[in-house]
Amino acid sequence: MALISTRRALAFSGVLAVALSATACGSGDSGGSGDTASSGGTSSIDCAPYTAFGDLKGKTVSVYTSITAPEDGPHIASYKPFEECTGVTIKYEGSKEFEAQLPVRVKGGNAPDIAYLPQPGLLQTMVATGAVKPAPAEVTANVDKNMPDFKEYGTVDGTFYAAALGANVKSFVWYSPSAFADKGYQIPTTWDELLALTDKIAKDNPDAKPWCAGIESGDATGWPATDWVEDVMLRTAGAETYDKWVKHEIPFNDPSVATALAEVGKILKNPAYVNGGFGDVKTIASTSFQDAGQPILDGSCYMHRQASFYAANWPEGTKVAEDGDVWAFYLPSKTAEDRPVLGGGEFVAAFADRPEVKAFQTYLSSVEWANERAKTCGSGGCVTANKNADASLLKNPVDKLSAEQLTDANATFRFDGSDLMPGAVGAGTFWKGMTDWITGKDDASTLDYIEQSWPKS
Amino acid sequence: MVSSVLQALPVGILPEPLLRAESTGGKFLLMAFAVLLFAAIFGLVLFLASLFKGREGEKVQGFLFALPAIFLLAVGLLYPAILTIIQSLRGRSGEAGFTLDNYVQMFTQPELLTVLRNTALWVVLVPFLATAIGLLYAILIDRARGEAFAKALIFLPMAISMVGAGIIWKFVYQYKQTERPQIGLLNGVLKALGFETQQFLLDAPVNTLMLIIVMVWIQAGFAMTVLSAAIKAIPDDIIEAARLDGVSGFRMFRFITLPSIRSALVVVLTTIGIGTLKVFDIVRTMTAGQFDTSVVANEFYNQSFRYNAPGLGAALAVLLFILVVPIVTYNIVQMRKEA
Fold this sequence. Notes:
- The complex is a heterodimer.
- Chain A is built from 20 helices and 12 strands.
- By secondary structure, chain A is an alpha/beta fold.
- By secondary structure, chain B is mostly helical.
- Chain B starts with a helix and ends with a helix.
- The chains are: A alpha/beta, B mainly alpha.
- At the A-B interface, α5, α13 and α19 of A face α15 of B.
């Protein structure tokens, strides 16, 4: 408890500092004087779109998110041009207990003005409480222009509520380029090649395992395993069946899901393939997802399937690049042409419709914000869902790679399935079921267990 | 705290700046307001009480003094309890009409049955183990040299929060492959003795026992302190008389010590029992209820706040309440007998 409150206090003082410096700077520079991207400081934005909301000076917008230190700093910095231009103060609060606390706050009549929801399933739950305000027309227009792919995920029962904010790509396999080069391994381009490579690594290296994996994540233990199933489901069953599965138009224990789970089991449940550096198959359940990929650096394992945001978890001094210590390749599909991409993101839901809140929503859905986010980016994870953002502003190589995947015309993007499912499944039994599956439950009873938990109404 | 209580009041009673006290000045204003309110209510009660005199008046006075407490209990305990019971009868997400679904599910779904089994394990093992260890320790160190120091040693865990204890023991149980350097104490010992390292928190039901050890570790100190005081309170002449009759050793314990500290034992057992039923922090910090270690309080939190099933959560809370009632009742009855 003490730990959490100090963290809060730190976050709060951070907000305070930003707010103070924002007011100190004033709104002197209004003309866009060719600010270069490399400066990383504040740049000015076109204030015209926000004057339509009236005089906003001295107003405050509270933001509640699951993005905590150290990733919150760059976020707060990206609001600065908006604050300078409108005079609005953004009160930022990040919490690791966000998903559980938000419903409590909303029910208690203490909702924040804006919340960044990492799961469309949570958005549906929140909309059902009646507290979420539909997106203003300006935001809808921005979304139609900048991120049409993400619009349906922010829509509940035909009404559009929430624009996408950040985006990440999950279909990545982390590896060590130098280890691959030393052993002469090629990046696989099809699923079969990946399995063949796995087998070859296992045979070549008696002291190491081809894969590392870890699904421990405190309260949320199990989610990395659901990502595995979703990624493989997209590859074995195809995007259309995937959509049906997510919407429960086919049961959770459908044969197509069983096929995908069995395919995942070929890797994760094979003692010869996992769990490099940690022990037997069961150690996957007790290894934190942050630690899971680390043995790649000492050669105890060769591959680790994890999202783009894993880049932030490598120890300081690790070079994350194509020619560096670690890098990621696209988790291959059945054929090299077929490119499903699994991804995630946050959505901006508003619980108030005051003018300053609408103005801030509009800012977050604009190209200006997406570019500002890229400029103030800290240690990566700065890809936005915004298609029209300037991808060249992204400095981090993983961010660049992710942006390429997201904007690739041949790629079929699908949102993380567990995040779309009702909370009882997507943040409950699916996680728990996969954890039990790792520790020994068989395929069929795992799927049956998750199926029976799907809310009836 | 005060501000959340105030926010629960219907808006309009208070001026806006008090409701949304965000600046430091506003918060001080709110605090001053709360203190004044408290003083005003107290003054009013005292004033009203002073109006009644005599024998009959004393009854009214007593009622008046109890009034604020009764009011707060009603608002803070009774009202939420009734709401919880109603919610538990209104389906999974609290929207259906009257239904017993939540209770049926609680006693039929295998995962929830595991939760009930674990809670039963906790309630049976923790109070008896903690009390037994505490009692043994209290007898062993009674009038021994360095008693105060020995007491302090076992009492220290009481000073650590449950979350803190959970984190400490998580490190004790930490698993690493046998070949790797160990950071977990227990596995370090195993490795040094030439055994394979073990995953203590992974396999049910052993993992639940491992968590129970943590609770016993915390509570044994409490049991020891209370029981030690009770043992010291046994009149010397009784012991003297027993000695003269030739009683010693185990018979002394069985026929003299144990009956003399009976009431203290009941208090210790029931207090630890109630605490154990509500155990949440240890489970949540160490395993988050994964690997079949969840207990009722933890599952209640999960269902209510994470799985969006407040109805089922409420049913679990009601169950917890029902389980605590007999223990509390027994405790009160025993205390009445003593008095």
